Amino acid sequence: MADKYNKPHRAVYLYLFLISFFIVLISANNPFNFRPSPEDSFFSFTNFITAPGIYLAGIPGLWITELIFMFISVCFAWKTALFFANPFISFLGCLFSFIILLGFYTANTGAEVFSLPFLMISLYLYVKYFMRQRREILFTELIILGFCFASAILIRFSLFPLWLGFGILIFLDLLFRRRFFLICRYINGFFIGTLIVFIPLYLYLRLEGIFDLIFSQHMENAAASLNGLNFVDTVRGFYSIIGSNFSFIPLIYGILFIIINFKSVIFYFYFAYSISYFLMILLLAFSGGSSQNNIVLVPFFIAPLTFFINIIYTFISRAGMGVKFRSTALVLFLCIVFSEGILGYIYEIIKLIYK
């Protein structure tokens, strides 16, 4: 079974699509399970993203759009996992990261789902940068990063920590290596990517005469989560998020590998990873840490789950079992460990069937 995935092949993308399909099956945008999002009451960048699908096919078009976005997220999650293990273990790391998502996904479908591809693509490119021997980013990749950043913060302003954490560490890495030309090049490429999103949107809103209204609305929504919070509420929210559905794993993983790789070049990656994740949780704590908001944490599960699954599989392999037996035992063990998401999914499917 494991040997089947030892080399990536096209069939893997079918399995990745099936993961995506079964996830969005319980979406609030499913035509047979439609539940309007609270965000439907005001304009957001998500309206632009979903407009073509809605225009062409109504609610089914919205659901298909979500399926496409989920498939992109799952594909780049798998591609990211490949940096940390072989294709079979990477597939399991990807699969169970999205099983963890189910624990958040069943609450309601919000704009967070449409932000996932931008987060996942960006994380993939950042991992790719640090795993490259020369540690460089192609100019086209910089434009993509800027594009993803602009799209994500227009969906949720609080998503900026991913780019902030990795951006600071890449800047320091280049600074210490005295690559001053690359610093300017990276900033320019990233800036061009943001303009590709901001300029058409700005022109459209200006032509419609609603730019000032939408801009003020977006700023109010970005700042609303900070109003009335105090230190105690923030700490309580932080620990609530950390204790929810294994969300402590990426933080422990990041801190552990910072210590292990303190004198290694890869230290930059784990430090950036930990800063980004910590700030992401902190901003979620400011907003109250509602369940569907935690979907944005899923990309950070890819690396630690792939790493831990690889350790478990290596340990089982030493027992001298056959490949099929130990692979099946590994999957069953992981299903038990991450049963919260699986049971929540089964519950949602039952509700959908007997609705």
Q: Could you say which overall geometry the principal axes of the C-alpha atoms support?
A: globular
Mean pLDDT reading: 85
Cα(first) to Cα(last) distance is 38 Å
The percent range for strand residues is under 5%
- Overall tally of structural domains: 1
Biggest sheet statistics: none
Description:
There is one protein chain. The chain is mostly helical and 355 residues long. The chain has 14 helices and no strands. It has one domain (3-353). The chain has helices at 11-24, 45-81, 87-105, 112-131, 139-155, 161-176, 180-208, 211-224, 231-242, 249-260, 267-286, 302-317, 323-337, 339-353. The relative contact order is 0.13. Mean pLDDT is 85; it is low at 1-6.
Question: How do you describe this structure in short?
Answer:
Helices cover 72% and strands 0% of the residues. By secondary structure, the chain is mainly alpha-helical.
Key words describing this protein structure:
disordered N terminus; 72% helix; 355 residues; mainly alpha; globular; 14 helices
What's the arrangement of secondary structure elements?
Blueprint: H1 11-24, H2 45-81, H3 87-105, H4 112-131, H5 139-155, H6 161-176, H7 180-208, H8 211-224, H9 231-242, H10 249-260, H11 267-286, H12 302-317, H13 323-337, H14 339-353
Helix pairs in contact: 1-2, 1-3, 2-3, 2-4, 3-12, 3-14, 4-5, 5-7, 6-11, 9-11, 10-11, 12-13
